[in-house]
Amino acid sequence: MELRSARRLRSQPPPGARRRFRPRRFPDGGGAGLISTLPDDMLLQVLARLCCARAAALTGALSRRWRGLWTHLTELSFRDISPDALDVALNQVACPALSRLKIKIPKRHTIHPARVSSLLGAAARLAPADLVFKVWGHTEDRNIAVEIPCFNRATSIKLDVVNLYLLPPVGGVQFPVLERLSISGCRFNIGKLILHCPQLRVLELLMLDAARNFSQQIAPLPALSYLHLSLARGHVSGAILSHLLGVCSTIQAIIIVLTSKFEYQKPCLPNCSCDEPQNWRTQNIPLVALEEVEIEGFGGADHEVDFLKLLFRCATAMKRMTVGLAPRVHPASRGGRKMYSLFKAHPYVTCSVYRC
User: Fold this and answer.
1) For the segment 314-355, what is each residue's pLDDT rounded down to a tens digit?
2) Coil, strand, or helix at residue 94?
3) Which residue(s) pair with 102 in the sheet?
4) Which candidate, 200, 291, 221, 286, places its Cα nearest to that of 254?
5) Can you give the pTM of this predicted structure?
6) How far apart are alpha carbons 156 and 200 in whole angstroms?
7) For residue range 300-318, what is the model confidence (pLDDT) as tens digits?
8) What is the DSSP string of 284-340?
């Protein structure tokens, strides 16, 4: 049969079949779209919204325009990354001074102290204003010292280095503008460390035990306004806390966490020095600046109730007291009843209780 039209007939696809579309070609050859024509500053804002250095680097697969652009970001976050991959990534960073650097190496990648020192040195070379650094060391290496390098631009540092021993840098002031310091998971000499931090105002510590040597280290504390302490439950914490508050009378708010989750927690033996000097219960400490107190993990022990009494007696400007009861502590227990009696005796303080 002869067709009237000169056009060639095209076979129709079977029902349900997908039609194939050819990708649109763009001048850069990558097919990433018009977004690739934006200026670098706007593209960097797009990458910053990803909040992940790995995801930002993977955008290089979209177009040649994006390749290596992540190295110019001022905020970098490395999560779930191996030490080798982190070494490569940090060496590629082109920004000379970061506003924020966040490094979290998972527990499955335990590393030796020398490697931790190398990674800290690489982080210091990027001069971050805000540093978060979390790594896991080997248990057998926890007595090997790791020296913290100098961070001249850092205003906030959070170090969560498990099974490691930290030493402050050698020399004079090494953290001239540091205002917030958080340390957990490791051994350290807080007294020597904070001597390098003349502008420190906020201190967060995770301590393994409440011993006298710690109370001796805190003597050179600067004019702190906020303090966050985690102490091992089972030890008498009132002695160390009363000494600390007496040394640093500028503290306006304090959070105390009593926990039993420390892996290397030392037991409180009959001759333990944690309750010395025992006259701390009757001391009068001028806590004229203290306004807010939160105690998490309150167990109702006599020494914990005694510390509450000291706070209500000495902190005449206190406005808020928040107590989190330990999981097995009932409000109607002996310690709970004493706590509520103290609350009723001080109606000018807003008191609240919750269960941890």
Assistant:
1) 999 999 999 999 988 888 899 999 999 999 999 999 999 999
2) coil
3) 77, 132
4) 291
5) 0.71
6) 9
7) 999 999 999 999 999 999 9
8) ----SS--EEEEEEE---HHHHHHHHHHHHH-TT--EEEEEEPTT--TTSHHHHHHH
